[in-house]
Amino acid sequence: MVPSSPFEALGAYAADARDLVIEVVQARHALAADAHEAAGTRYTFGFGGQWRDLLEDTYEAFKDRGFQAHRLVPAGYRLPIVNGGLVFVWRVPGAADVESGFATSKTRMSGFFARRPVEMFGQSFIEGGEETRNASEQDELERMILAAGEFMPVVLVMVHSTPRSLNAIDWAVAEYTGGTVHLHGEETIWKSEFVAASAADDVESFDSGSPVAPSLEPQTQDRTPDA
Predict the structure, then answer these.
(1) How many whole angstroms separate alpha carbon 82 and alpha carbon 69?
(2) By C-alpha distance, which of 72, 86, 71 is closest to 21?
(3) Could you tell me the pTM of the whole model?
(4) Are 155 and 173 in contact (CB under 8 A)?
(5) Which of 4, 18, 31, 125 would bridge with 121, disulfide CB 3.0–4.6 Å?
(6) Helix axis angle, 50-63 relative to 14-39, nearest 10°?
(7) Proportion of the chain above pLDDT 90, given as a percent
């Protein structure tokens, strides 16, 4: 069963994972934006290339905190495994449609068919050694055995940015069915204060009363009499 939200998928690690991916994305954006400005280019190809650095940065950040990783095929990118789910940080290119755009890569697609690693149970389970100590531990072991070999849920972190600004970071549980990606529990976990303020300034709301129509008066034009 697909988790209904990233918080359900990541369990007790959700809040820390959220804070960590925000930190990773902000740091990588700053580096990519500086490089783009230093290059003095009108084009964003170099800036857009940060997607691979985002994957590596995320993998290394979670690895440093003791999390395992899964290697995607065929390209070999590594994703952290958090609470039995994959965390995939992806910069959304331009105005791409996430539901269809994410599924255009074979490597990204392979994440939806990644199975839970047997290593998550430890050597004791594999070697048939140490017995469970109480009913609670037995219940947890049985849950893990049932989960073994199942496809891991994918928590997709979507980064919206331009060379000028990091606009927002969203996340959701991504499910691939019927040829498209479906997002569950999508939520904005970070938004630029500048973007939020600009949106508030630019949009007028008429939730009460009615807008005042502009007053247009006909203008007279002096005409030169025909000679």
Answers:
(1) 9
(2) 86
(3) 0.72
(4) yes
(5) 125
(6) 140
(7) 45
Q: Could you give the CA distance from residue 28 to residue 34 in angstroms, rounded to a whole number?
A: 10
Q: How far is CA 72 from CA 75, 77, 113, 127, 131, in A?
A: 6, 5, 10, 27, 34
> Which residue has tokens 């919206």?
160
pLDDT value, residue 168: 96
Residue 51 parent element (H or E): helix 50-63
The residues with which 188 forms a beta bridge, in sequence order, are: 170
The 10s digit of each residue's pLDDT in 100-142 is 888 888 999 999 999 887 655 443 333 444 454 667 766 665 5
Residue 160 has pLDDT above 70, yes or no: yes
Which DSSP symbol is given to 5? S
CA distance 132 to 54: 40
pLDDT of residue 226: 47
75 DSSP assignment: T
Please report, as a single letter, which amino acid is at residue 67: F
In this structure, the strands spanning 165-177 and 85-91 are unpaired
Percentages of the chain per state (helix, strand, coil), in multiples of 5: 45, 20, 35
Question: What number of other Cβ atoms are within 10 A of residue 119's Cβ?
Answer: 11
State the average pLDDT over residues 29-57. Answer: 70
Which secondary structure element, helix H or strand E, spans residue 131, and what is its range? none
Angle at Cα 181 formed by Cα 163 and Cα 185, nearest 5°?
Answer: 80
CB neighbours (10 Å) of residue 9?
27
Local structure of residue 185 (DSSP, 8 states): E
